[in-house]
Amino acid sequence: MPATFPTSYPAPVATRPRPRLRGVAPSPAIGRDGTSSRTARAALAHHLGHADPLAGVDRTVPERTWERVGTADGAELWLITWPPDSGTGWHDHGSASGAFVVLEGALTEHVWTGVATATTLPPHLVREFGSSHVHDVVNTGTGTAVSLHAYAPSLAAMTRYEVVRGRLQVTSVEQRGELW
Question: Where is this region: Disordered (predicted)?
Answer without folding.
Answer: 1-36
